[in-house]
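for the recovery benchmark. C-alpha cells below, seq after
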C-alpha cells in the first residue's frame, strides 16, 4: 500500500526525532512492502521565521490532504516573547481544530527495563503497568461559556463545563473500541457525585454498555482516580474521561512512567487521518546535539500504523524492537543516569536492526 504522511518537524529537537521515526517507517515499508511518501510542512517557530505565522495555510492544506500527520514539537526561547496568538504553541491548537480531532489517546506504559526510573515503590510496580487514556479533546470546560462579571463580592470570573450527548457518545465509542482491542476493561472517570455534566456522562457510558458485551466497564470518581494511579496503576487498562480530567490525569500517568522521552500520543477525529506526536516539548536545552530520545516519536509512528492505517503487525514490530533495545540495556542520555549512552541516531540504528 501507498501512504502519504505529512511531516511537521517543528522546532528544537523536533527535526532530529522526526527524522528517526522516518527512518524506522522506511525500514518497515521495505520489510512489509509499503510505500510511505513523506511531505514536510512548516509549523511553530520555524514557520514564524519563514512566513510570519505559526501555522501557514499550506501546512493546514497539506495535513488535510494527507493520510496522516507526524509532528515533532514546537516552541523555544526565541519565540517566547511573541504575543499569545503568534506563539508557536498556537499552531498546535490550530492544527487540531482544523483536523477536527476530538480524541486524544495517551498510553502510559512502564517498561520492565525502565522500572528503576519509576518514582513509585518497587512493590507497587512489580508487574509494570500499561494504561491507555482516552481523553475528550474539544469539549468541556476549556471550550464552554466563560467570562468576567461583577458579582456579589466584586470582580469574578467563570468557566462552564458542558457536554452534549453527541460529544459523550462519540468519545465513549472510541474508548469501548479501544478496550476491545486491548484487555477489555474500561474505567470511566467523572465527578458524578457533584457535577450534572458528569451524571449525563455516566448515564451515557452505561447506556452504551450493551453494545460492547465483551468489555467490563466501571466508574471511578476523579479524586479517587488520582489516588489509584499512584496506589495501584496496574488495575487500569483503558480510561475514558473529559477534557480537563484527562489533561491532569494523563500528566500524572506520564510522570509515573518516569521517562518523558518515551511517551507517544495520538489525536483522532471521525476519519482515519490522525495527528501523532510525542508528549514532550521541543527540549531547546538539548536541541541540535543528537542526544534526544527519539523513542516517543518512533512509538507515535507505531500508533499511526495501528490507528490510521490498521497495520497491526507492522505497529507491533516497532513496539517489540523498542522493547528489545531497552532490554539489551541501550539508553539515550536522559535514561542513562550518567552511564555511557547512545546518541539519537545510534539508538535509532539499534531499533532498526531489531525490526
Ligand atoms: P520539554 O518537554 O521540551 O522539556 C522538559 C525537559 O525534558 C527538558 O530538560 C528536556 O531536555 C527533556 N526532554 C524532553 N523531551 C526529551 C527527549 N525526547 N529526550 C531527552 N530529553 C527530553 O518541556 P519545556 O522545556 O517545558 O518546553 C520547551 C519548549 O517546548 C517550550 O517552548 C514549550 O512551550 C514547548 N512545548 C511544546 C510542546 C509540543 O510541541 N507539543 C509540548 C510541551 C512544550
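predicted aa per position
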Amino acid at each position: 500500500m501507498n501512504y502519504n504522511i505529512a511531516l511537521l518537524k517543528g522546532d528544537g529537537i523536533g527535526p532530529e526525532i522526526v527524522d528517526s521515526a522516518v527512518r524506522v517507517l522506511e525500514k518497515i515499508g521495505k520489510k512489509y512492502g509499503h510505500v510511505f511518501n513523506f511531505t514536510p510542512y512548516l509549523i511553530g517557530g520555524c514557520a514564524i521565521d519563514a512566513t510570519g505565522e505559526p501555522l501557514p495555510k499550506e501546512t493546514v492544506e497539506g495535513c488535510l490532504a494527507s493520510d496522516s500527520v507526524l509532528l515533532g514539537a514546537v516552541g523555544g526561547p526565541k519565540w517566547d516573547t511573541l504575543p499569545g496568538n503568534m506563539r508557536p504553541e498556537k499552531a498546535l491548537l490550530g492544527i487540531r481544530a482544523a483536523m477536527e480531532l476530538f480524541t486524544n489517546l495517551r498510553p502510559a506504559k512502564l517498561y520492565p527495563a525502565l522500572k528503576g526510573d519509576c518514582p513509585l515503590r518497587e512493590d507497587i510496580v512489580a508487574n509494570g503497568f500499561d494504561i491507555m487514556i482516552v481523553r475528550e479533546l474539544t469539549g468541556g470546560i476549556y471550550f464552554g461559556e466563560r467570562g468576567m462579571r461583577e458579582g456579589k463580592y466584586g470582580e469574578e470570573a467563570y468557566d462552564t463545563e458542558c457536554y452534549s450527548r453527541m460529544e459523550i457518545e462519540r468519545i465513549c465509542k472510541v474508548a469501548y473500541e479501544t478496550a476491545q482491542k486491548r484487555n477489555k476493561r474500561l474505567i470511566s472517570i467523572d465527578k458524578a457525585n457533584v457535577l450534572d455534566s458528569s451524571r449525563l456522562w455516566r448515564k451515557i457510558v452505561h447506556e452504551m454498555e450493551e453494545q460492547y458485551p465483551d468489555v467490563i466497564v466501571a466508574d471511578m470518581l476523579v479524586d479517587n482516580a488520582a489516588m489509584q494511579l499512584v496506589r495501584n496503576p496496574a488495575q487500569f487498562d483503558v480510561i475514558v474521561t473529559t477534557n480537563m480530567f484527562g489533561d491532569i490525569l494523563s500528566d500524572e500517568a506520564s510522570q509515573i512512567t518516569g521517562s518523558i522521552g518515551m511517551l507517544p500520543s495520538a489525536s483522532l477525529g471521525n476519519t482515519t487521518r490522525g495527528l501523532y506526536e510525542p508528549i514532550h516539548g521541543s527540549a531547546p536545552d538539548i536541541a541540535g546535539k543528537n542526544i534526544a530520545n527519539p523513542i516517543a516519536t518512533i512509538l507515535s509512528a507505531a500508533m499511526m500504523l495501528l490507528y490510521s492505517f490498521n497495520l497491526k503487525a507492522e505497529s507491533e514490530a516497532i513496539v517489540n524492537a523498542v522493547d528489545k533495545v531497552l532490554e539489551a540495556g541501550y539508553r539515550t542520555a536522559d535514561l542513562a543516569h550518567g552511564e555511557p549512552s547512545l546518541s539519537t541516531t545510534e539508538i535509532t540504528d539499534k531499533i532498526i536492526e531489531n525490526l
